[in-house]
Amino acid sequence: MFFGINMLNNWAFAFSISVPVHIILRSFGSVTTMMMGWLRGKRYSLLQVLSVALLTVGVLVSAWADSEGKGKSMAVETESSTSDFSVGLAILLLAQLLSAWMGAYVEDTYAEYQADWTENLFWTHFMSLPLFLPLGGPLRRQYAKLAATPHLDLKGQLASKDSLISSVPFISAANQDIVLSTLESLPSGLLYLLLNTLTQLACISGVNLLSAKSSAVTVTIVLNIRKLVSFIFSTIFFGHALSGKMAVGSAMVFGSGALYGWETSWRLPRERRGRRLEGEKHGMNAKVGMNGEAKKER
Q1: DSSP for 211-237, written as a single string
Q2: Bridge-partner residues for 187, per DSSP?
Q3: What is the pLDDT of residues 145-193, one digit of tens each?
Q4: The three-state (H, E, C) secondary structure of 123-185, written as one string
Q5: Those residues with Cβ within 8 angstroms of residue 7's Cβ, 6 or more apart along the chain or in another chain
Q6: What's this model's pTM, rounded to 2 decimal places?
Q7: Which of 33, 40, 214, 279 is the most exposed place for a label (fewest CB within 10 A)?
Q8: Residues 6 or more apart in contact with residue 94 via CB below 8 angstroms
Q9: Are the CB atoms for 46 and 260 separated by under 8 Å?
Q10: Would you say 64 and 245 are in contact if contact means Cβ atoms under 8 Å apart?
Q11: CA–CA separation, 69 vs 65, rounded Å?
C-alpha cells in the first residue's frame, strides 16, 4: 500500500494535474480517513466531524489563495488535456482512498502489536525497493539528466556574512570553504535531489512517529496544519503578501485544529473518565448492598 500510494500520487503529475490541484485534492485526507475509520468500526463525535469539515474547507481556501497569490493556474486548456486531467483526478482519488485505508490499518496495527515506529519506517521502505526494479531504465535516464545539470556557484552566492551558512553555529569559518567546495562538486540537480531526500527523511520520520502515538485522523489533521504553515512560510519567503483569503483559511484551519484537539484530548477523555468512575461507584454500592443483605440473612 505504501509503495502504491506514493507511486500513484507522483504518477498523477503526468496527467495535467498541477501542484495546486494536487495539494487541494490531497487536503481531503482528514475526511477520507475519518470515513475509512468509520467503516472499520470507529465512531466520532459531532464536534470531531464538524472540526474536520471546517479544517478541510480552511485548507482548500488557503490552497486557492496560495495558488492565486503566486500566479499558478488551475485551468485545463485543451480538449486532450481535459481527458488527461480526468485520468489524473481518478488516480488521485484512488491514491486518497488507499491512503485513508492504510492510515486506519496502521493505527489498528500499532494498537494490536505495539510496534516501534522505526520498525514501520524501515520495512515500508526496505520492502518497497525491489518494486522499483521494473523502473530501472527510467530511473537511470532521470539520474543521467540530473547528473548533467550545471554546478552551482555557492561561494559567490553564500559566502557573504549575511548568508545562511555563515549563521550555522557548528560550521566554523575555516570549514565553510570545505562545505561549499563539497556542495559545489555536485551537479545542481543531484544537490537538489539530496536536499529533497533529507527533508523527506525528516518529514516521513515525523509522520511515522506521530502515527505510532496518535489516531489516523489526528495525523491527517496535523499534516493539514503543517501544509498551511508551509503556505504561509513560502508566501512570506518569496515576497508575496498574505491575502484576505489566506487569513480566513488560516483562521479556519487553526481554529478547527484547536477544536478537534480540545474535543479529542480533553472533553472526550474527561467524559470517559466520568462514566468509568460512575460505573465503579455503582459497582461499589451494589457490593455494599449485597454485603448488607448477607449480614441480615446471617
Answers
A1: HHHS-HHHHHHHHHHHHHHHHHHHHHH
A2: 151
A3: 999 999 887 666 655 545 555 555 555 556 667 777 777 788 999 999 9
A4: HHHHCCHHHHHHHHHHHHHHHHHHHCCCECCHHHHHCCCCCCHHHCCCCCHHHHHHHHHHHHC
A5: none
A6: 0.72
A7: 279
A8: 8
A9: no
A10: yes
A11: 6
